[in-house]
Amino acid sequence: MIHLHFTSVIIAVILFFVAVMMQNGSKGQKITHMILRVFYILIIISGGVVFSSAMAGSMAMEYGLKLLGGLLVIGMMEMVLVRKQKSKSTGVLWALFIIFLVFTVYMGAHLPLGFLHI
Ligand code: HEM
């Protein structure tokens, strides 16, 4: 499950940047956005499965923060894309996206199943 989670995260972030760079309102952007939403679901399911089997230990708070961070990253990706499609400002959302992404990847990587855990 952790591999599905990690793979889904990488693909989702790439799809997000592809969708952002596409022409506003184009068919390609809409389709990429739809596929990205499928990956949100994969991330939440795979992360949720690992979460439920691993959080009830001494690192419950870290797992809780990781889950919250992950949901906020998904929220920011969705809000940046939707506001961009409506030609509204996205500056603050981009800043929050970067902050939440760095935090979530840091937490994920340092938790027991993460690639930087020692
Ligand atoms: C786009 C948002 C997210 C990003 C960028 C992200 C990133 C990561 C990364 C990089 C890892 C380490 C994976 C590895 O080293 O193989 C990880 C692990 C994990 N993530 Fe996420 N994640 C996100 C969303 C979520 C969500 C929504 C949940 C909960 C529903 C979640 C729960 C977990 C859990 C439980 C782990 C395993 C931690 C461990 O036991 O070591 N993540 N995540």
Automatic annotation (TrEMBL):
It is a multi-pass membrane protein. Pfam families: DUF1516. One of its GO terms (cellular component) is plasma membrane. InterPro entries: UPF0344. Its main location: membrane. The keyword Transmembrane applies. The keyword Isomerase does not apply. The chain crosses the membrane at residues 6-22, 34-57, 63-81, 93-113. Keywords: Cell membrane, Membrane, Transmembrane, Transmembrane helix. It is found in: Cell membrane. Belongs to the UPF0344 family. This is UPF0344 protein ATY39_01425. It comes from Rummeliibacillus stabekisii. The lineage of its organism: Bacteria, Bacillati, Bacillota, Bacilli, Bacillales.
